[in-house]
Automatic annotation (TrEMBL):
UniProt keyword terms in alphabetical order: ATP-binding, Nucleotide-binding, Transport
GO molecular function terms noted in the UniProt entry: ABC-type transporter activity; ATP binding; ATP hydrolysis activity
Family, as annotated: Belongs to the ABC transporter superfamily.
Name this polypeptide is given: ABC transporter domain-containing protein
Cellular component GO terms, alphabetical: membrane
Pfam families cross-referenced by the UniProt entry: ABC_tran
Protein species of origin: Gemmata massiliana
Domain ABC transporter: 4-249
Amino acid sequence: MAKIELQDVSVTFNAHQQKRVSFKEYLVSGLFLRSMNPPLRVHALKGINLSARDGDRIGIIGHNGAGKSTLLKTLAGIYPPTNGTREVEGKICSLFDITLGFEFEATGWDNIMYRAYLQGETPSSIRGKLDAIAEFSELGDFLNIAVRNYSAGMQMRLAFSIATAIDPEVLLIDEVLAVGDLAFQNKAKARMKELMKTSRLMVIVAHDLNAILDMCTHVIWMEHGCVRAEGAPGIVVEQYIAAAAAASGQLPEALKAA
Ligand SMILES: Nc1ncnc2c1ncn2[C@@H]1O[C@H](COP(=O)(O)OP(=O)(O)OP(=O)(O)O)[C@@H](O)[C@H]1O
């Protein structure tokens, strides 16, 4: 069974400020032993509660900087909650930032082994998938050389081929993932669709509201690190569009017609 349970989760970052300071300000701050660039605390997530089970397809929408990617990364276990608790059960496949964590001095083949192992495969289950991963990546002999010699697109191909080789129970996707050239993108999209169908639980961050309406059973609208609204996709997306239109001083199409 796949399961996600976030209780009162907050994530805070300490960002280093790089304000320009005049020489005078610099001297005065030194005199009082004050830093001119104290860390800026960014409250990316504030008190998020989320509960999802087998069969749920959750869409996350919201403005730039609302906290969508941070939420996805917290679910993936990349960011530990600053407060609150995170519980995720099931094999996770994260389709975002997929090229992070390559061993650049190692060959493509070795990276397949390392990564698949980190994704929870055993040495024997990896061996059964090696050829399929290599074939999907279409990297051929390049798999014999160090990954540092790959182009950005080739790294993407390899990372995507490995990440999607497992049968995920929990699928975490950022819509902006664009993999490789046009031919590979079509292949990648088809594989993503397949994974969306077969995974038990999916959470997707997207700005494409039609995709959200098509795919999701539940939508969470994030605003400044909080959940502004959540519920049935049709209702939440409509509220989101109306709020965006009001903010930009335009009437939503539906209201214009009324
Ligand atoms: N590693 C980090 N260090 C410091 N601040 C961060 C970090 N990651 C995100 N933030 C901040 O957290 C807030 C939420 O960012 P996040 O990337 O989650 O937003 P988002 O909703 O995914 O935005 P977008 O739609 O633009 O991708 C922003 O204010 C961002 O500056």
